[in-house]
Each structure stands twice: as structure tokens, then as C-alpha cells.
């Protein structure tokens, strides 16, 4: 496999290469040494997808050997809810209540061993009134069973323009969900404190939400709960809202037993209980001209949200704001339905609705090209957002720092797109059963939380007498390299070596009111808050440094473990400045704070600024498909992505690799199957395929776009975590190009076999 990329110097990626995540040295929550007397938690789940709990008796389970507690909804001292947005999700299903999916938790057990907890679970007596579940969006749409009102966005007069368009086409797309399959399952460890309250170690992207729900369920104050988060074994959005579950259950059991409780979902439990990427069915009508320019577009999407809202309404808003993709569409009307089904509540997943949106609009572009006999790349060029005109989205946000056409030109040249197209056409004429395909997918991805109050972060920097530095920031490290990036930010600001800087575990007691590490905002928020703390420290210590150098004034520079005034050609060691400041009673600690203002969206008018900025790029995929077997190879993959001025190029390159591969899984491999009874049939790697090394492109070309810094952001960088996932859609479209027909998501091997060769 060949990898071509921007030339890097060793220091650019040494931290990334040596990260403990890659060496296997990272200790996750299940690796912790537990306190003596710790108990194991276990969740007892509904065996039905939809049924009313008529009777529940846990007395025999409570008397079972090794059991310390069995709790039901009646035992919760506070409100029985852990819904992050809309109050529709109980912590435990109450007697008389109706379960929403197969696996919904009815009661929880704390025992000395997992085996004893499971034995106790088998002794629970209950009866159910079984009801007919709804497991498809078609049935939900037929019943008009929605979790919230449909979301609508309209610009111009699409009905009139559709009527007057020279060409009109209708189309549809069906896409499945995706399992997060993080390395470390959902886990939490709750420890009662002697002064009251709880200390909770949690594998979470959102410590503050964990704190909030633990306090609420127990009828305590937020200050009674401390949530700590070390390194996560992956999150991908799955530990944003649903990490609340194990925190809630372990907290309740620890409160009841007055003993520490470790609650870890087994892998098959995690599969069955937790939500996925949102599946959907979409339909559209597009009106366009002879050059492929879109005149009008109407889109309808029905999302499978599962049994309760979770954060589906936010996911659908994010999708709604990206249905334009990289294209200016003067007349557009979109409506999105959040359908209720008897499945686990679907939740955040890397991309947060954007991959679904891009799959639809890129399908529209492809359809237009096929109708006109044009290359899809030329149709994309025709419709891109402009710089001085045609530069506002349907919600009236200005598209700034637009590199769409520049990225298009670069990747066309680097891939020899049109030359390769000719070679592919020649190859396909010679081969009957093996075909090659080519496709392009550009990217435009909005960065920020849509709700303004989420766009804030605090930080704390402590400098010690020996010159070492400890930093606290609100983000969680889940394999994305955030801690390394934060060390780099402080290194750049204070000029100290990264070896002298340690990142502490995230704690709600040190940095309160944290925002979830999500929406690709980790570096933006935590980095800016740390820079603010550094700026305050330097402002306070600069006069001391000048005095130590025998100067009254001058420009102070912090670099290479020294503090210097280059005009005077004099300096002082950072360690000496620190020790002197301590001896003269100067504080060496400082808080930082960052907030993003001017972000807001009016849900009544559906206008405003939902994002701080856009991340852009482009991709081209070249594939080869065997029509008889459905097997395919990615012969070449080109990605050109704009990271602004990267904080750490190595980490960013790794994020592009990882996001692409995860997107590839969604597009081509990872098919979730739910039976008519609501049972998830794909609940292990025996029947659920995720990408491996053999799915890697044979030639993987990744480059970072140069010369487009982001002035609105920390160190002129741009977000990286989520946006590259959408480039995997170019593989999916290239497979369609090879197969000569439209394909669902995922385009599995079974889907890729030409229908003529399917066994009857």
C-alpha cells in the first residue's frame, strides 16, 4: 500500500507515533484496580420490543447468593429520567409501563460477581402484555408516529421553479444504521465518598451530563457528584448521551449499597441496548437545466430514531443544514421526519447527520449527470457555492473561506481524473464481468454546536516550582489525540518542551460545566481556553521576566524553554522565572475561558448562523468490482482536506485515515438486521462486519490543503474529527459507477452482485 502525503518533519508527528493508544499501553476504565469490597453491576432487560410490564417481583433475586441490591424504578429517590433533550426516557422501566425496545432495562443488580448477578436475574418474576412492535420507518410513517414535529427548511419557490425547469427527475435512497463498535464498551465505576456524594469514573464524552443525571436520580446537588474521565477506548458519538446509562445505574447501586459498583456492558449487551447511526429513507425531485445546474430541489427524509428521542432532533437539524452539500441551490424545500420505532434510541455518531445528508445530495448530482450524459465532476463544478455570489446557504449563512473550486481543480489534477476516466471506459469495454468505477465527493461540513450555550469551555494551568506544567481542559481523550494537541498548544504558547507538560484526567470538580467532546470542537474549545490561560499567565509574568533580565520594557518571547527579549539579546530560563515568581509570591496558576458568540439559529424563521465556520475538501475513488462475486478493491483513493494550519499534522492525517475507514464501513460493509419481533440479529462480529486491513485502499493518497488558515480559530486550525468520514461516499458512488446501477447503503457484497447472477 502506497501513501503519498504532505512532507512532514519528524517533530510534526513524533507525539502521535508514540501515543499510548497506539502502543497498547493505555489503561481504560475496565483496567482500573478496584477498591476493596467493590461490586459488579448488571442490567436486566425486557425480552420484548413492545410490551406492558404487568407484574414485577424481584424478592427472590434480592435473596440470591452474593447479591447486595436489586433496584427497580420504585427505588429511585429522584425523578426516573435520563433523557438528554425531551423527557421521554426513564432510567428503569416502571411496573405498568410499556417498554420501547427489546433490551430496555427494567431493573439493575449489584452482586459480588457477574455470575451471581446473572443467577439473580434468572430468578426475577414478571409478566408482560405483548404488543405488536413497529420496526420499519414505512410503518412509522404510515402511523404518523413521530417523536417530534417534522423539521422543514425552504428557500425560494421550488414548486414554481420545478414546474419551469427544462428537466425533472425523481429519485430515492435507503440507508442503514451503523454500530459504533468502540474498543471499550459502556462503563462506569461509582464510589461513595465518606463526606457524602459520589466519585464516578466514566467512559464518557460528556462528564457534565453524567454528573447532572447522577445527581438528579439520587436527589442530590451537582456539587455532590464528581465525574472523572481518563482515556476512552473510542466513542464516535456513542458515549455522548448514552454513557449516562452506566453512570446512572452504577450510581444508584453505589448509593443503595454504600459500596463501590463497577458497571460494564458486555459486548453483546452493548450491541443490543445501545443506539446506532440513524437509518433513513429519502425521496426527492430535482429540476435542472441543460448544463446540469440545479433550479429546484425537494427532499423528504424519514429517519429511524428508535423508541425515544435521545438527541435525534439535534441530529436531524444537523442533517437539514447540510442537505445542500457543497452546492448553491436557489430554490429548495426539505422536510425531515423523526420516526418512532421499537428499537434502541439511535444517537450521535461521527458525522451527526451530515453523512446522511451528503449521501442524498450526491445521489442527486449523480442522477443529473446520468440524465444529461455528463461526467458527474462537471455537474458538481457547475453547482458549487460561489465566492462573491451564490454564497449563502438555505438558512442564509454566508459560506466563507470557500475553497471548493480550488480543491476540485487540485484533486482533478492529482488523480488525473479525466485521463483515468478514459482508461476506465477502455477497461470496461474489454471486460464483461469485472468493471471499474470512478467517483468524486466534495466536502462542506459545518463546525460548532447549533445551540449557542454549548459553545464554551474552561481550562486550568498549574505551573510548579520545578518548571513542569499540568493542564486541565474539558475535553475527553478517546483516541483522537486531543491530549497531544493540547500539549502542543501550551508548548507553543509558553515555549516549554512537551515533555514538561502533563495533561490531567478530565474532572467536573476542576473544570465544571463542560461541553461534550463532540461536533469536532475538542481542539477548538479546549485549545482556545488553554491559550486564554496562557495569555493571562504571560501577562502577569512578563514584567517579572523583564526585571530579571535587567530591563524596564521590551517585547517578551516564550520559546525553547526560555523567556527572552530579542531586542536586548538577553533571556532567562523558564525554570528560573518560575522559581523566582514563586519565591516572590506570584501565582503560577491560571484559569482560561473561551466562548463562541454570534452563533444562533431561529427555529421559527429557520434562518441564522448555525456554525462558526465550514471545513472543506474533496475526494476521488477508483474501484474495481467483480460482478459475479460482489468483491471489490479500492485501487486508488485520493483525499484533499483543509485543516487550516494544523496543530499536529500527524494526528490530523491519522484522523483522516480513521474517519474514512469508518465511513467505508457504513457505506459498504456494516449491515444491521432487525427481525420482525424487534430483535437485533447482528449482535457480534460473527454476523456484523467492520472494516479491516484488507479493506484499505491499495494506493491511499492523502494531502492537506495549503494556504487557507482559519482566522476564527485557535492557531488558525480547522476541525478534523468528523468531516473526512463523508469522503468514503466516493467509494460507494464509484461502486455504483462500476455496477451501472444505484445501490443502497451499505452496498454489501450481496447488493453488488449483478442481479442476473443472483441465485434464484
Verbal overview:
- The structure is a single chain.
- The protein has 760 residues and is of the alpha+beta class.
- The protein has three domains: 195 residues, 2-Layer Sandwich (Aldehyde Oxidoreductase, domain 4); 326 residues, Aldehyde Oxidoreductase, domain 4 (2-Layer Sandwich); 140 residues, Aldehyde oxidase/xanthine dehydrogenase, molybdopterin binding domain (Aldehyde Oxidoreductase, domain 4), CATH 3.30.365.10.
- It has an eight-stranded mixed sheet with strand order 4-6-2-13-10-11-12-21, sandwiched between helices. A five-stranded mixed sheet has the order 1-30-29-28-17, with helices on both faces.
- Strand 23 and strand 24 form a beta hairpin.
- Helix 11 packs across helix 12 and helix 15 runs parallel beside helix 16.
- The longest helix is centred in the last third of the chain and has 27 residues.
- It is globular.
- The N terminus is likely disordered.
List the helices and strands and how they pair.
Blueprint: E1 2-4, H1 10-17, H2 20-23, E2 39-45, E3 51-57, H3 59-62, E4 67-71, E5 98-99, E6 105-111, H4 114-121, E7 125-130, H5 137-143, E8 151-155, H6 158-164, E9 167-175, E10 187-192, E11 198-202, H7 207-218, E12 225-229, H8 244-257, E13 261-264, H9 267-273, E14 280-288, E15 294-304, H10 312-320, E16 332-339, H11 354-372, H12 376-383, H13 404-415, H14 417-430, E17 434-447, E18 456-463, E19 469-472, H15 482-494, E20 501-503, E21 506-507, H16 522-548, E22 557-559, E23 562-565, E24 570-573, H17 574-583, E25 589-595, E26 600-602, E27 607-609, E28 613-626, E29 632-641, H18 649-668, E30 699-704, H19 729-739, H20 749-752
Parallel strand pairs: 1-30, 2-13, 11-12, 15-16, 19-20, 29-30
Antiparallel strand pairs: 2-6, 3-5, 3-7, 4-6, 8-16, 9-14, 10-11, 10-13, 12-21, 14-15, 17-28, 18-19, 18-25, 22-23, 23-24, 26-27, 28-29
Helix pairs in contact: 7-8, 10-11, 11-12, 15-16
